[in-house]
Amino acid sequence: QVQLVESGGGLVQAGGSLRLSCAASQNIFSFSVMGWYRQGPGKQRELVGLIGSGVITTYADSVKGRFTIARDNAKNTVYLQMNALVPDDTAVYYCYAVDSYASLPYWGEGTQVTVSS
Fold first, then answer.
1. Stretch 3-29: mean pLDDT
2. What are the distances in angstroms from CA 102 to CA 1, 33, 36, 74, 111?
3. Cβ contacts of residue 30 below 8 Å, gap of 6+?
4. Are residues 28 and 34 in contact, defined by beta-carbon separation less than 8 angstroms?
5. What is the pLDDT of residue 84?
6. Under 8 Å between Cβ of 25 and 3
7. Phi-psi region of 84 (alpha: psi -120 to 50; beta: other; left: phi over 0)
8. Secondary structure (DSSP) of the chain
């Protein structure tokens, strides 16, 4: 059973930074893509960004230039560095991965990020 465990959420003031981590229970080379989604209060879940097995990344327009996704293959961990946070970034952030072989999606349980104005 694949597990994705997020950490690093919390409360931060506008303009601040946070780094989220997503630790996978298996070698992340087994995933064709990993990344982050978020769901703000009263909103639908939306894409934040994705990273492929190499270094190719894609980001939502709302976070480009502020958020960065990186992966540490040795630690089986994906990170989301969030800078210049704004209140609209307040959401539960979910780690996401797709299995390379069966194309099955996996989700973490989420970590809360709250940005105060």
1. 96
2. 14, 13, 20, 23, 27
3. 99, 100, 101
4. yes
5. 98
6. yes
7. left
8. ---EEEE--EEEETT--EEEEEEESS-GGGEEEEEEEEE-TTS--EEEEEEESSS-EEE-TTTTTTEEEEEEGGGTEEEEEE-S--GGG-EEEEEEEEETTT--EEE---EEEEEE-
Amino acid, res. 44: Q
| Confidence category of residue 97, pLDDT binned at 50, 70, 90 | very high
pLDDT at 57 over 90: no
